[in-house]
Design a protein that fits this description.
Helices cover 45% and strands 13% of the residues. By secondary structure, the protein is an alpha+beta fold. The protein has one domain: Cytochrome-c3 Hydrogenase, chain B. The chain has a 3-stranded antiparallel β-sheet. It has a 3-stranded antiparallel β-sheet with strand order 6-7-8. A hairpin with a 2-residue loop joins β6 and β7. α4 packs antiparallel against α5 and α4 runs antiparallel to α11. The longest helix is centred in the first third of the chain and has 29 residues. The chain is globular and about 70 Å long. The chain starts with 18 loop residues before the first strand and ends in a 9-residue tail after the last helix.
């Protein structure tokens, strides 16, 4: 009988042609009019090129032709999910140039509405991130609670998306009589719902496996790219402007800076960026409770410190900790009623720039998860 021999054939590496795929600008998972030019080898992402420039807001140029007061509504339209937060650093900059000091009541209301807007922004971020992973029910729960916050904003400003509420030297109008009770109801509901979200989504085995060790962003890379907000803190960097460089009256309140701890997954991955937003909602609730206690009774007019003429002179850079990161405005004023130059430093623009770095080597399905974990709004990217 003939001896049987094993024959080994070396097929070598099969080279395949790489494919370029456009994701967006109409795709729902691009979170706005963003186009991702994705290079694929099979289902593996080898390169990602974000293309922006579909909104053409021209905010910075429009500001040069608007009065200082008229600029505020345009700022609302940058990150239109966090309009209250957008207004604060700009107004603080003008007030500093003009030497205006507002009352503790005004400062308290500003902090409360800013933290409410932070919660509302994170509710959208967590809800849509769950949608990207295939979970629909948390989206309904979080948007239901967000309506309570929008109801308060509507009573304060008349708007549910764009507010024009924080004014140089004060506010559009004072808080209404049941403001405190409404805000406390929101805090109670947010805490109840977040427990449900943890059970439904965050601790869900399928969600964990979809998000852990995906799109990992090392701390040093996050710092080098200039990332901020949950993108930076998700990588374990304990940096929050409310603590590091306190503005308004944040130095009067006790709260923790939430960071990705890596208890599940890896520090800096998509899961840890998302869990930071969950933690921050609770910290915002703590700040609001303290601000409500600190807020003096309505003994003075919130218009009392309104300047008769807004025509500052000088230049200043003011920044604030927005839900998505550091929002800053560099303002040059030449003594006229219109700014000579307003430059916006938007966190979504900077955070998006790191997407190609954290997406390579993952599957195309993971790219959707990674982009969702960044939490962008195109209004402040194409400005």
């Amino acid at each position: 009988m003939a001896e049987r021999k094993e024959i080994e054939i070396d097929f070598g590496r099969v080279e395949t042609e790489r494919m370029r795929l456009n994701v967006g600008p109409q795709h729902p998972s691009t979170h706005g009019v963003l186009r991702l030019e994705v290079e694929l080898e099979g289902e593996i992402v080898t390169d990602v090129i974000p293309h922006i420039g579909y909104l053409h807001r021209c905010f910075e140029k429009i500001s040069e032709n608007s009065t200082f007061v008229q600029v505020v509504p345009y700022i609302d339209r940058m990150d239109y999910i966090t309009s209250m937060n957008n207004e604060l650093p700009y107004v603080l900059g003008i007030e500093k140039l003009m030497g205006i000091k507002v009352s503790d009541r005004i400062e308290s209301i500003r902090v409360i509405i800013s933290e409410l807007n932070r919660i509302a922004s994170h509710q959208i971020a967590v809800a849509t991130f769950g949608m990207d992973a295939g979970a629909f029910t948390p989206f309904l729960f979080l948007f239901r609670d967000r309506e309570m916050i929008l109801n308060v904003f509507e009573k304060l400003s008349g708007g549910r998306l764009l507010y024009n509420y924080i004014r140089v030297g004060g506010l559009l109008q004072d808080a209404y009589p049941s403001f405190k009770n409404d805000v406390l109801d929101i805090i109670r509901k947010v805490r109840e719902t977040n427990v449900e979200i943890m059970n439904l989504l965050i601790d869900n085995k399928i969600f964990i496996e979809r998000t852990i060790n995906v799109g990992t962003l090392p701390a040093d890379v996050a710092i080098n790219f200039g990332c901020s907000g949950p993108m930076l803190r998700g990588s374990g960097v304990k940096y929050d402007l409310r603590k590091v460089e306190p503005y308004s009256i944040y130095d009067k309140f006790d709260f923790e800076v939430s960071v990705g701890d890596g208890k599940i997954g890896t520090v800096g991955d998509s899961y840890n960026r998302n869990i930071v937003r969950m933690y921050e909602m609770e910290e915002s609730c703590k700040i609001i409770e303290q601000a409500l206690k600190f807020m003096p009774d309505a003994s003075e007019d919130v218009h009392a410190t309104f300047p008769k003429k807004i025509a500052p002179k000088g230049e200043i850079y003011t920044k604030a900790e927005n839900p998505k990161g550091e929002l800053g405005f560099y303002i040059i004023a030449d003594g006229k009623n219109k700014p000579y130059r307003v430059k916006g430093r938007s966190p979504s623009f900077v955070n998006l720039s790191v997407l190609p770095y954290i997406s390579k080597g993952y599957m195309i399905a993971d790219l959707i998860i990674i982009l969702g974990s960044v939490d962008i709004v195109l209004g402040e990217i194409d400005r």
